[in-house]
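can u do me a favor
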């Protein structure tokens, strides 16, 4: 059994043990049809040998490289089904708990315990809505213990795992914290609605989960609602340490959605078509920064009117987020956040529902969903060979890649040495396995992605440096 398949099985086993220990819901119904055993799944063979000898393919890109423009791909249908009404209803419910602080009094109607139960019920409803009885979907709580303000606390992360069809596609994690904080850090029961921070992120993750369970996904999807982010991200740290690292889960992407509902800046200025994206560097070689570029790439192609601004920082100065619990130990992770901060609202009673813009929340959620679609269902990237001098043109370099029967076309992405995102794209047909161009020398990094026969954009291969001599 391969290491990837073992890791996939360990994820199911680990989450199963977690559910036995501390599930907030009833035990899975005995009539639930188990998912297809891994041994019977035929995963995509990403690097299958070619059936014909590779044929050289040469193009001459325009001498003046234009700005990055969308390539010809098909927009995922579910992007247009993101519901503002449903998300705003969920935000209203979360705000009605008055406080979701880890020190809030346990109650059936208010506090973090009530929010935890409500999120669990939502996930159970989403699980029940799936039309695929052979796809295993589990809902669990992950309890962890830590000390805060002189008290021993046992809060819970709430988790839904949706088994994928292809072990080689790995695991994609989509998360948001559901706890709140006020400026009186150790006061649990004062009014702290947390509509934007972070009921907006919770509602977006729930919305994405609703759409993803309605289809079969190549990657296994894990939706996580973290407790104790506001006190130092203890919830995500516990999740990483208790499960991800111990079980060696093959995580290919972590998306942290935190404060994504308001387009307003501190002076009331609007950023209706902009959001920020944070990831750990360095800019060249870090897997989290490469994931950030893929989010930008997905948004550019699927949502060209939404600007995703990749920042050269792990998070805002002096701030933290749950994505850091993953990237700190080597997993690719990013934080999606609205276009500007308003420090006069965060962690105050003014963080109310009326400050969340439904259409802006829809757009930021669509960006996240587009990125999840790319990572969860797009075809695997080809394997690249280092660039070499062209055999026919000394002024050109040749880029070669491996064959994949799932690729209808390939996308070449070029990045300048100081760029955070890709500056130039062009595409070649699926029968081509190489391209020669003098333009490569104008850039510092190159990569290749794949578009399948259904028009789905896939992950980009690890970047290659462009030789300088």
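np, heres the sequence
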């Amino acid at each position: 059994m391969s290491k990837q398949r073992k890791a996939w099985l360990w994820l199911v086993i680990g989450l199963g043990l977690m559910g036995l220990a501390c599930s907030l819901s009833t035990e899975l119904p005995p009539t639930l049809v188990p998912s297809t055993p891994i041994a019977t799944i035929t995963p995509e063979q990403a690097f299958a040998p070619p059936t014909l000898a590779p044929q050289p393919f040469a193009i001459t890109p325009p001498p003046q490289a234009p700005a990055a423009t969308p390539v010809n791909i098909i927009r995922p249908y579910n992007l247009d089904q993101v519901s503002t009404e449903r998300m705003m209803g969920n935000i209203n419910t979360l705000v009605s708990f008055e406080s979701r602080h880890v020190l809030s009094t346990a109650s059936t109607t208010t506090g973090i315990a009530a929010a935890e139960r409500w999120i669990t019920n939502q996930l159970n409803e989403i699980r029940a809505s799936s039309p695929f009885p052979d796809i295993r979907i589990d809902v669990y709580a992950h309890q962890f213990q830590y000390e805060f303000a002189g008290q021993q606390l046992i809060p819970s992360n709430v988790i839904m795992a949706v088994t994928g069809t292809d072990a080689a596609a790995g695991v994609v994690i989509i998360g948001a914290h559901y706890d709140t904080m006020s400026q009186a850090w150790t006061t649990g029961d004062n009014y702290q609605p947390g509509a934007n921070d972070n009921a907006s992120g919770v509602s977006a993750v729930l919305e994405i989960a609703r759409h993803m369970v309605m289809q079969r996904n190549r990657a296994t999807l894990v939706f996580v609602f973290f407790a104790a982010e506001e006190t130092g991200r203890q919830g995500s740290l516990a999740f990483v340490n208790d499960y991800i690292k111990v079980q060696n889960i093959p995580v290919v992407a972590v998306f942290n959605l935190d404060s994504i509902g308001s387009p307003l800046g501190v002076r009331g200025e609007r950023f209706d078509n902009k959001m920020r994206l944070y990831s750990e560097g360095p800019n060249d070689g870090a897997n989290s920064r490469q994931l950030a570029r893929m989010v930008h790439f997905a948004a550019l192609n699927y949502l060209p009117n939404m600007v995703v601004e990749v920042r050269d920082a792990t998070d805002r100065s002096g701030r933290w987020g749950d994505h850091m619990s993953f990237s700190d130990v080597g997993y690719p992770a990013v934080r999606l956040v609205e276009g500007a901060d308003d420090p006069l609202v965060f962690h105050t009673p003014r963080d109310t529902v009326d400050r969340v813009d439904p259409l802006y929340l829809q757009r930021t959620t669509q960006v996240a969903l587009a990125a999840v679609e790319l990572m969860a269902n797009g075809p695997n990237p080809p394997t690249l060979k280092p660039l070499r001098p062209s055999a026919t043109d000394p002024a050109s370099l040749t880029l070669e890649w491996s064959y994949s029967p799932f690729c209808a076309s390939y996308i070449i992405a070029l990045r300048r040495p100081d760029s955070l995102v890709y500056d130039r794209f062009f595409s070649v047909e699926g029968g081509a396995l190489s391209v020669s161009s003098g333009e490569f020398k104008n850039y510092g990094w190159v990569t290749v992605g794949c578009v399948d026969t259904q028009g789905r954009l896939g992950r980009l291969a690890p970047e290659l440096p462009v030789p300088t001599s």
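The chain has two domains: 45-64+380-469, 77-377. hope that helps!!
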